[in-house]
Amino acid sequence: MLWYKAWLETRWRFLVCLALILLPAYEFFHLGTTLRSWEVDEPFPYFRRLFYSHAGSATVWQFAAIFLGLGGLVRERATGSSSLTLTLPVSRGRLVGVRVGVGVVEATALAVAPWVANLLTSAFRGTPFSASQAACCILLLAGGGMVYFAMAVLVSSVVEGEYTAVAIAFGVVILAYALSRDVEWLKALNLFPLVTGSGYVNKETFLFPEALPWSSILASLSVAGLMVFASIAIIQRREF
User: Fold this and answer.
1) What angle do CA 61, 63, 68 make, to 5 degrees?
2) What is the Cα–Cα distance from 175 to 162, expressed in whole angstroms?
3) How many domains does the chain have?
4) For residues 169 and 14, is the Cβ–Cβ distance under 8 A?
5) 73, 127, 186 from 196: Cα distances, Å
6) Strands of 39-120, DSSP E
7) pTM of the predicted model, to two decimals?
8) Domain membership of residue 157 as a residue range
9) Distances in Å between the alpha carbon of 83 and those of 79, 86, 88, 235, 237?
10) Any idea what DSSP says for residue 125?
């Protein structure tokens, strides 16, 4: 019941984000008309377009993850429906945990969906496709970027206003990006090279020839986990 409730609360956000994140894949579907004749039989132009398609999807995914993380008990309090939710025979920690679980599944699905579309396009056109490249991009995006979703969950656990939470969540992302450009020791705040794989892909073949940055992925997931635990602790202590 809790999982279904969480799905009902986020389904329209998920479906809208799904439509938006498939737009780069739609552009990849029409790439055959933009390739030169001598490029058609070469694999690298297709791998390059696949990688650029992923970069576009990753940009949309970051914002989608934030939207999926917003909401929850604090928002329900603002709309007056939290009292009904709190009467359910479950702990507040479980309520937050289920909401986070549904959001993680939805965010992961959004990371996988464009590559499924690209795979179908490649199979339809008979063009090259690298399953290992797809797996690397999905892992970098969902693993390295899940901190965006967790940050939105944390903001939603602190800020009551729906639009205020959105403004703060996106403000944090913009501020982190600006600081990472201007302050040398804060460059780790810029996750874009990690989630897109632009810092690790071979610029000639647009494949991943070396080991993935597991330390960066684990660090990002660890920070995301700490944010989720902080969110649960805040909700458990908050008055409703």
Assistant:
1) 90
2) 20
3) 1
4) no
5) 32, 22, 19
6) none
7) 0.88
8) 2-237
9) 10, 5, 9, 14, 16
10) H
